[in-house]
TrEMBL record:
Species this chain originates from: Marinomonas spartinae
Keyword entries, A-Z: 4Fe-4S, Flavoprotein, FMN, Iron, Iron-sulfur, Metal-binding, NAD, Oxidoreductase, Quinone, Translocase
Underlying gene: nuoF
SUPFAM superfamilies: Nqo1 FMN-binding domain-like, Nqo1 middle domain-like, Nqo1C-terminal domain-like
Catalytic activity: a quinone + NADH + 5 H(+)(in) = a quinol + NAD(+) + 4 H(+)(out)
Name of the protein in its database record: NADH-quinone oxidoreductase subunit F
Similarity section: Belongs to the complex I 51 kDa subunit family.
C-alpha cells in the first residue's frame, strides 16, 4: 500500500500518525501524537452534544452506503431506562478490491479503539464489539493488544479516566461471509445465529443485538470521529475540495493494472483522474483504460470520460454509479467484459445467504447465462434475460441489498459494452475471438 509523506494532523487526520516502517502505532506513541485527546473532550461533554457535533460535521458512513453518522447515532432511543445498548464496528471488509479498513486496523489500532469509546459515550452504550473479517489475523492480534493497552491505562473498562463512564470492548472474528457486511446479518452472526439479514423494521437502533438498541458503523467512519472532537466542525468541513458537498477526507485508491496500485487519504471531492494519474501512476505501458468501478465490485462501471468527476457521493451517483468504498478498480482494454462479469457474479452468487428466492436463484442463473456467452454458446434472447434479471433483482425486489448490488456491474456492463455480449451469442464466435484479441485462425 502506498503512503504519501509530509502528512500533518490538519490535512491527514486518519493517516498522519502512520510510521514509515509500517509497524503498528502502540499506546505510548499514539498518545504522543494526540491520541485519546478526543476521548477526554468527549467525556467532558453530554452525549447529545457529541452526537450534535458529529452530525454538524457532516460525516457520512465510509462503508459504502454513505448514511450520515451523526444522524444514525441520533436515532438511538432517548429513553434513559433502556440502559443496555451496544456499539458495533463493522470490520467485515469482504468487498472485492477493498482493503482500506485493514490498513487502519493493522497499523493504527488505537485510532479505532478511541473512536469506539467516543461513539459508545455518544449513544450511551456500555459494551462494544469489533466484528472482524476472520482472515484479518494480524488486525485481530493488533486490535486485541491495543484494547489491553487501553484497559491498563484506564481508557477502557470501569470508570474511564475517572469520568464514571464504563465501556467494555471485544474483538469478534467472523466466519467469512460477505453477507455479514449487512448490519442485521452481522448482528445475527454475532449472536451465534445463521448470517441472514433481518426484516426491518424494527431497525437495530430499536432492537438490535440480543434485542437491545444497537448502532453499527464502519471502521473508517468511526476512525474519523476523534479528529472531529479534536479540531471541530469548521476544520473538518474545510478539508473538502472541488466544491464537494461531502466533508472530510477519505481513504481512496486504485487497483488493477496500474503502475502504482495503492491507497491514499485524500480530500472528499478529489477527482478520479487525479487519483489514477498522480497517485496510481496511470495505466501500465501498452494498456488503455477501458472502464472502471469507483468503489468496489458491487458498483456500476463508469467510462474514462467520467474520470474528471469529483469522488464524492453526489457526483458519482449522478453519473450512474455509487462511491461505495472509494477504492476504484481500473479495467484495461484487453479485458473481456463478459469474462469479468462472469467472475464477479460467481462471487456474488456464492455469497448469497439464500434467504430470498430472487437472490438465491437469480444470481446463479446470471452466472449460467454469462458462462454460455463467454464460451460463444449464448442463445438469442440471453442478453434480454440478463437485463430482465437486473430489473428483477433491483432495489425493493429482494430481502436485502445483496442482489441489487450484485447486478449493478452487470447492468452497466451491458449498457456500455453490449457488443461484447452480442459477440458471445451462438454463431458469432469469430467476433468473440476478435474482442478477446485472438485471430480467427488461432486455436
Amino acid at each position: 500500500m502506498s503512503l504519501s509523506i509530509n502528512k500533518t494532523a490538519e490535512s491527514h487526520p486518519l493517516t498522519w500518525c502512520l510510521r514509515e516502517d509500517e509497524q503498528p502505532v502502540w499506546l505510548d506513541e499514539y498518545r504522543r501524537k494526540e491520541g485519546y485527546v478526543g476521548v477526554e473532550k468527549a467525556l467532558a461533554m453530554h452525549p447529545d452534544e457529541v452526537v450534535g457535533l458529529v452530525k454538524d460535521a457532516g460525516l457520512r458512513g465510509r462503508g459504502g452506503a454513505g448514511f450520515p453518522t451523526g444522524l444514525k447515532w441520533s436515532l438511538m432511543p432517548k429513553d434513559e431506562s433502556m440502559n443496555i445498548r451496544y456499539m458495533i464496528c463493522n470490520a467485515d471488509e469482504m468487498e472485492p478490491g477493498t482493503y482500506k479498513d485493514r490498513l487502519l486496523m493493522e497499523q493504527m489500532p488505537h485510532l479505532l479503539v478511541e473512536g469506539m469509546i467516543i461513539a459508545a459515550h455518544a449513544i450511551k452504550a456500555y459494551r462494544g464489539y469489533i466484528f472482524l473479517r476472520g482472515e484479518y489475523v494480524e488486525a485481530a492480534e493488533n486490535l486485541r493488544k491495543a484494547i489491553e493497552e487501553a484497559k491498563s491505562a484506564g481508557l477502557l473498562g470501569k470508570d474511564i479516566l475517572g469520568s464514571g463512564k464504563d465501556f467494555e470492548l471485544f474483538v469478534h472474528t467472523g466466519a467469512g461471509r460477505y453477507i455479514c457486511g449487512e448490519e442485521t446479518a452481522l448482528i445475527n452472526s454475532l449472536e451465534g445465529r445463521r448470517a441472514n439479514p433481518r426484516s426491518k423494521p424494527p431497525f437495530p437502533a430499536v432492537s438490535g443485538a440480543w434485542g437491545k438498541p444497537t448502532c453499527v458503523n464502519n471502521v473508517e467512519s468511526i476512525c474519523n470521529v476523534p479528529s472531529i472532537l479534536n479540531r471541530g466542525v469548521d476544520w473538518y468541513k474545510g478539508l473538502t475540495v472541488n466544491g464537494s458537498n461531502d466533508c472530510g477526507t477519505k481513504l481512496m485508491g486504485f487497483s488493477g493494472r496500474v503502475n502504482n496500485p495503492g491507497l491514499w487519504e485524500l480530500p472528499m471531492g478529489t477527482t478520479a483522474r487525479e487519483i489514477l494519474e498522480n497517485y496510481a501512476g496511470g495505466m501500465q505501458e501498452g494498456l488503455d483504460l477501458k472502464t472502471w468501478q469507483p468503489g468496489g465490485a458491487g458498483t456500476d462501471f463508469l467510462l474514462p470520460e467520467h474520470l474528471d468527476l469529483p469522488m464524492d457521493f453526489e457526483h458519482i451517483q449522478k453519473a450512474g454509479s455509487r462511491l461505495g468504498t472509494a477504492l476504484a478498480m481500473a479495467v484495461d482494454h484487453k479485458i473481456n467484459m463478459v469474462s469479468l462479469l462472469r467472475n464477479l457474479e460467481e462471487f456474488f452468487a456464492r455469497e448469497s445467504c439464500g434467504w430470498c428466492t430472487p437472490c438465491r436463484d437469480g444470481l446463479p442463473w446470471s452466472v449460467k447465462v454469462l458462462r454460455a456467452i463467454e464460451h460463444g454458446e449464448g442463445q438469442p434472447g440471453d442478453i434480454e434475460t440478463l437485463e430482465q434479471l437486473c430489473r428483477s433483482l433491483a432495489p425493493g425486489h429482494t430481502f436485502c441489498a445483496h442482489a441489487p448490488g450484485a447486478v449493478e456491474p452487470l447492468q452497466s456492463a451491458i449498457k456500455y459494452f453490449r457488443e461484447e455480449f452480442e459477440a458471445g451469442i451462438s454463431g458469432q464466435a469469430n467476433n468473440l475471438r476478435e474482442i478477446r484479441g485472438i485471430q480467427p485462425n488461432q486455436q
